[in-house]
Design a protein that fits this description.
Layout: H1 2-14, H2 18-27, E1 37-39, H3 47-50, H4 57-79, H5 93-101, H6 119-126, E2 129-134, E3 144-149, E4 203-208, H7 211-216, E5 227-235, E6 248-252, E7 267-269, E8 274-279, E9 282-288, E10 291-296, H8 314-321, E11 329-333, H9 341-344, E12 346-349, H10 352-358, H11 360-363, E13 370-376, E14 379-387, E15 400-406, E16 409-415, E17 433-438, H12 444-450, H13 462-477, H14 479-513, H15 515-522, E18 560-562, E19 571-576, E20 581-587, E21 602-609, E22 618-624, E23 627-633, E24 644-652, E25 660-669, E26 709-713, H16 718-722, E27 731-739, E28 745-754, H17 758-766, H18 771-796, H19 809-820, H20 824-832, H21 836-841
Helix pairs in contact: 14-15, 17-18, 18-19
């Protein structure tokens, strides 16, 4: 029987389709024998739990990889004779990696990360966890995935309480182990619903306990040293009388099922090794003597069916979902693709951050990534900002903009449209930014509030809203990003300055010629060019540091003080209640001082006096080129105008004998409300700058309208690709912001008009007017339409429409202009040709106004 069991396990391992698995099990006499199948978790109602896991197949797959990493960490711990749940065990994943894989205790913030390893070491360690993609290529069906690890493995008796358990109270749950990721005993089941094209949910498990562990921690299982295996299936409900109403997941457990079908045991066999791991593009080639293999048959890969290692393939997306993976994983593409075996069919998954560190110069803008510590509701996080060259961010993500991680695993994300929000105004950089927010240090309660139990998406609670507001403030006001945005904008303007001037002159004439447009946009003020000198702050440019040229900071600060103050001198200032309080410091330390691994800087904020004495404030500290901008959210519901608050900010690190202490005395005043008659608005609640129309001077009334930049885009232009134009696209806008002062921005838009639009080309070919006039009508018609939409959006939409499912102004202009493109020019021509006689014929006297 042992040899037959081994043959059956190997046959199932080599199968790549549901049909093959069913055939193999039918021939073995198991598929149609109900007594041979045991309910997953010993619960007939297990579908309600298993079916309520990850919403995306790649997120469910990541949980399998995380479990393999956990298995290796636990194995290494137990081989040291340490009970993983004891007080002697490492306190965190980094501690475990440092101790067991770097042979040194974790020293402060140094060590315990794959990112610090050499490529040779990453490759060597990746051989112990592999992911093989087998089966048909994308055109012919869905592939199967096999994850294999040389981890702790399980005995036949323990498999029902580990791999096949969904009860968090079982004795084998990892909740008591501090240095593993998969603590919730649920993630491993999420992949089941994505297995199989016929919804059979087939999955294979093969495992063997590490003999080294059995020597140190003996088992009562008489078959403990054997390999065991099972197949998981989904039994769908039937219409038969007395049938269950929901699907039930069951697993193959035929041993002893004649006596107790509900408690049958797993098939097992003896073998010193099994060929479970791949070698280059050949699966099931490399022999291992213990560990576990999980095979997901015909897995739903959705948009990741192509070559796993190509740009935008499975590997790159897994690195987004595991940006700081604890241990490297070797990914093998074993399907029938052409290429050099040694180079094209295997690569190491090391996580996004490590991958970018390897190719930083080719991918990232200088001085990035930049890290910013933030505190929300007393919870500490670190946001790491990656600013890519051009659109190279798309090589590493699909639609993610903000990624939230815990212990290196993505637990949720916000789309890249986050950067287009009215309060952020980073639409120009949306395709170039990825922000990774490390939430590892969140308290258990905060983690539960911020993330769903499935660990693949954010919840919609109050903590999420507070975190989003802090991130909006952080990114909108980050001096490096503002500088990069303006630099790219100015570079584009310089390239087309002479071409755009006639367009803007004509637009100005059109706006002045119409009383309605003049009242709507011009406010009776003069026109102004959109690019003034000093838009980033004039002589005292934010982020400029203490001298000219490229900034190079010290490893440790020799001063950290309020801007334009002496060391230790306190700051007295006022702040509008309901707006962020921003305080500027000057220092000589490097930009990564608060986020680096080696001797990290620390800062502490304390409320010394006032109505909120002792309170934990929401705040962030952005350090860039010698300037530290501290943004604080003072609680509007507790304080009143006239209240005084004394704040203390202390900065230190392990090399400083004394911390730098700065005390600020803040007097709260009423928020300054703009005059609604001039078309501008102030927004309360710490939201920062006004929304306005984007075409109206939000704060600087003297400047009047900021004429939008107009770019005519053709099919062979770089802008066509950059902004994802199609022949039906009419107009797209990008929102930028220019500094008015430290508190306020002014919105300015760039209009990209498609002069190779399909309908415009038709009008130009068949129209009676000259083509230049037709093109001009299309361009200015779209610009005026867009200005109207921007104005209406600013007046009538909430600033957080985008975060609650509403369309951003960029999406709105794109959609509406595309819809009106077929009839825009004919409408202008037809309406312009209406004469007084035509109006009289309609019975309108013209005296009703």
């Amino acid at each position: 029987m042992s040899e037959k069991a081994k043959d059956l396990a190997i046959a199932l391992l080599h199968a790549d389709t549901e049909e093959e698995v069913v055939t193999i099990l039918t021939r073995a006499g198991y598929w149609n024998d109900s007594r041979a199948w045991r309910a997953y978790g010993d619960l007939d109602g297990n579908f309600s739990t298993i079916g309520n896991q990850q919403s995306r197949p790649e997120a469910a797959l990541v949980e399998k990889l995380v479990n393999s990493v956990d298995a290796r960490l636990i194995d290494a711990c137990m081989l040291r004779g340490i009970d993983p749940a004891s007080k002697k065990a490492p306190e965190s994943i980094r501690h475990a990696v440092s101790l067991f894989f770097e042979d040194r205790p974790l020293a402060g913030d140094v060590g315990g990360t794959v990112q610090s390893w050499s490529q040779r070491r990453q490759l060597d360690q990746s051989q112990y966890i592999t992911l093989a993609v087998t089966g048909p290529t994308a055109r012919n069906g869905s592939p199967s995935l096999t994850i294999v690890d040389c981890g702790e493995g399980q005995t036949p008796a323990d498999v029902p309480f580990t791999f096949l358990s969904i009860d968090s109270k079982t004795r084998s749950n990892k909740l008591r182990i501090p240095f593993v990721q998969g603590k919730f005993n649920m993630g491993g089941t999420g992949a089941l619903k994505f297995c199989g094209q016929k919804s059979s949910g087939l999955q294979l498990v093969i495992t063997k306990r590490d003999p080294g562990i059995l020597k140190l921690f003996p088992s009562d299982d008489t078959r403990a040293a054997e390999w065991s295996f099972t197949v998981i299936r989904r039994d769908r409900p039937t219409s038969e009388l007395g049938a269950v109403r929901n699907s039930v997941y069951r697993y193959l457990a035929p041993v002893g099922s004649n006596q107790r079908p509900e408690k049958g045991g797993l098939l097992a066999f003896h073998s010193e090794t099994l060929p479970l791991m791949p070698h280059q593009k050949t699966p099931y080639k490399r022999e291992i003597s213990f560990g576990s293999a999980i095979k997901l048959y015909e897995y739903d890969m959705k948009g990741f069916k192509s070559h796993a290692l190509m740009k935008g393939g499975l590997l790159s997306h897994l690195e987004i979902l595991l940006p700081e993976v604890a241990l490297p994983i070797r990914v093998h593409e074993c399907r029938e693709y052409r290429g050099d075996e040694a180079r094209s069919f295997a690569n190491t998954l090391v996580g996004l951050t490590s991958r970018l560190d390897e190719n930083r110069a080719a991918n990232l803008e200088p001085d990035y990534p930049a890290s910013v510590p933030l505190v929300v509701r007393g919870e500490r996080m670190v946001a790491r900002i990656y600013a890519f060259v051009g659109d190279k961010a798309d090589s590493y993500r699909t639609n993610e903009g903000i990624i939230f991680t815990v212990n290196g695993q993505t637990h949720g994300a916000l789309p890249k449209t986050f950067f287009e929000r009215a309060r952020v105004k980073m639409g120009r950089l949306a395709r170039s930014l990825i922000v990774v927010v490390d939430c590892t240090n969140l308290s258990t309660g905060a983690r539960e509030d911020l993330f769903m139990n499935s660990r693949d998406r954010l919840s919609n609670g109050e903590l999420r809203k507070a975190v989003e507001e802090e991130l909006e403030e952080l990114i909108a006001k980050h001096p490096g990003l503002r500088e990069l945005r303006e630099r790219r904008r100015q570079a584009e303007i310089a390239e087309r300055l002479e071409d755009s001037r006639p367009l803007e002159d004509v637009l100005g004439s059109v706006l002045k010629s119409s009383p309605s447009l003049s009242r709507l946009f011009l406010l009776g003020q003069r026109l102004s060019r959109p690019h003034r000198t000093g838009d980033l702050g004039g002589g005292e440019q934010e982020g400029a540091g203490t001298g000219g040229g490229k900034y190079t900071g010290r490893s440790h600060p020799t001063f950290f003080r309020f801007a334009k103050k002496h060391d230790g001198e306190s700051l007295t200032r006022s702040a509008e209640l309901g707006r962020r309080c921003r305080i500027k410091f000057e220092t000589d330390v490097a930009n990564d001082y608060f986020s680096r691994e080696d001797v990290t800087g620390r800062y502490h904020v304390e409320v010394l006096e006032g109505a909120i004495e002792g309170a934990e404030l929401d705040h962030s500290l952005t350090l860039y080129d010698g300037v530290a901008n501290w943004s604080i959210n003072l609680p509007e519901d507790v304080l009143s105008p006239g209240d005084e608050v004394t704040l203390q900010c202390s900065v230190t690190d392990d090399t400083l004998t004394e911390p730098f202490v700065n005390v600020a005395k803040i007097t709260l005043s009423s928020i300054h409300e703009s005059d609604p008659k001039n078309g501008t608005r102030s927004r309360r609640g710490g939201k920062g700058s006004t929304s306005g129309s984007g075409a109206v001077g939000d704060h600087d009334d003297r400047s009047g309208i900021r004429l939008p930049d107009i770019v005519k885009v053709r099919e062979n232009d770089a802008s066509w690709v950059e902004h994802k134009f199609r022949d039906t696209t009419a107009c797209k806008v990008v929102q930028d912001a220019l500094d008015i002062d430290e508190e306020h921005d002014q919105s300015v838009y760039t209009f990209y008009v498609n002069v190779d639009n399909r309908f415009l080309r038709t009008d130009m070919k068949q129209g009676s007017t000259d083509v230049a006039s037709t093109e001009a009508k299309f361009v200015f018609g779209n610009v005026l339409l867009g200005l109207g939409l921007i104005h209406d959006h600013g007046q009538n939409s909430q600033a957080d429409d985008e975060s609650e499912g509403g369309a951003s102004i960029e999406d709105l202009v794109d959609r509406v202009s595309r819809a009106t493109a077929p009839f825009l020019v004919p409408m202008i021509d037809s309406l312009g040709a209406i004469s007084p006689e035509d109006v009289a014929a309609l019975g309108h006297s013209g005296d009703d106004d």
